[in-house]
């Protein structure tokens, strides 16, 4: 009778770990495909005439997600619309928001992490509460205030609400708390004041966190719809999401052109996110280190 040999414990653990890795990878791939399929279908639909958008949805076939006669006619038709001006407006508003917002959020995070004063915890709790409240819930009363201040149909009115972002302050403060105190003490011994410590120690070491916070500020402005709808009512200050919504006519919608405009509005932030992806992941991974 042959005796069975048991696998070593280390090999059993390796096998179990391999199985878990395979299933985790399959789950991640499935989730990725689930997110990618609607985007791919939108892209393919943007290469077809609008009348063929829903032709191959029922039943599903390979023609649903592929086309043998792609055309850029829908993208060419966008040149006759105001979408390009709206995209440039969105880029301007988003970039200015990132620059001004990083200056405000970084200094606020620095004050909440480096200085010890009475009420600091309460003030930080208010910051946390600010990004837990949906902005759309306060957009209408805030828009009434901005109209009283004559900020409607101005780029300043579109930019101001995005400058102070509670989530960006939280992210930067968490990163600042992880900076070794020895570096701060060395800077103090070299004669640096608090502002010098911020600009020469905190800011250079916080590049990943600043990029991650900048992406948050950019996406907040780029995908905003309710606030630009309330504040940018003329063609000069219209932003991308509002211009996209305006392309839907009352009695007729050209889905081919609509999907082409949607792809442009998606690809711009997607390219930016992919370019700074590793910095964003690094900034988020440091949250909660200290």
Describe this structure in words.
The chain has 290 residues and is mostly helical. The protein folds into two domains: 63 residues; 210 residues, MetI-like (MetI-like fold). Helix content is 70%, strand content 0%. α4 packs across α8 and α5 packs across α8. The N and C termini lie far apart (61 Å). 26% of the residues are buried. One of its GO terms (biological process) is transmembrane transport.
Helical fraction equals 55-70%
Q: What is the residue-averaged pLDDT? A: 86
CATH superfamily of the largest domain: MetI-like
Overall geometry: globular
Number of domains: 2
CATH architecture of the largest domain: Orthogonal Bundle
The CATH class name of the largest domain reads Mainly Alpha
Give, in order, the helices and strands: HHHHHHHHHHHHHHH
CATH structural fold name of the largest domain: MetI-like fold
In terms of per-residue confidence, which ranges show pLDDT below 50 for 5 or more consecutive residues? none
Provide keyphrases for this structure.
MetI-like_sf, ABC transmembrane type-1 domain-containing protein, MetI-like fold, about 70% helix, single chain, transmembrane, about 290 residues, MetI-like, 15 helices, 2 domains, about 0% strand, transmembrane helix, mainly alpha
């Amino acid at each position: 009778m042959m005796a069975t040999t048991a696998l070593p414990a280390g090999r059993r653990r390796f096998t179990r770990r391999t199985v878990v890795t395979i299933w985790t990878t399959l789950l991640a791939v499935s989730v990725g495909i689930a997110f990618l399929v609607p985007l791919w279908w939108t892209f393919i639909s943007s290469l077809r005439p609008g009348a063929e958008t829903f032709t191959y949805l029922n039943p599903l076939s390979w023609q649903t997600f592929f086309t043998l006669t792609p055309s850029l006619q829908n993208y060419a038709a966008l040149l006759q619309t105001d979408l390009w001006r709206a995209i440039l407006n969105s880029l301007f508003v988003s970039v200015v928001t990132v620059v001004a917002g990083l200056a405000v959020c970084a200094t606020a995070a620095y004050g909440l992490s480096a200085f010890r004063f009475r009420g600091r915890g309460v003030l930080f709790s208010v910051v946390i509460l600010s990004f837990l409240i949906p902005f759309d819930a306060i957009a209408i009363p805030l828009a009434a205030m901005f109209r009283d201040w004559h900020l409607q149909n101005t780029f300043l009115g579109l930019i101001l609400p995005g400058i102070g972002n509670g989530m960006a302050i939280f992210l930067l403060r968490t990163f600042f708390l992880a900076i070794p105190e020895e570096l701060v003490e060395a800077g103090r011994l070299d004669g640096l004041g608090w502002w010098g410590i911020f600009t020469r120690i905190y800011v250079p070491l916080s590049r990943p966190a600043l990029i991650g916070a900048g992406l948050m500020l950019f996406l907040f402005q780029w995908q905003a719809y309710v606030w630009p709808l309330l504040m940018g009512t003329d063609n000069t200050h219209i932003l991308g999401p509002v211009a996209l919504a305006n392309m839907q006519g009352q009695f007729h919608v050209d889905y081919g052109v609509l999907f082409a405009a949607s792809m442009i509005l998606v690809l711009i932030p997607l390219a930016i996110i992919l370019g700074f992806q590793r910095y964003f992941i690094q900034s988020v991974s440091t949250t909660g280190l200290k």
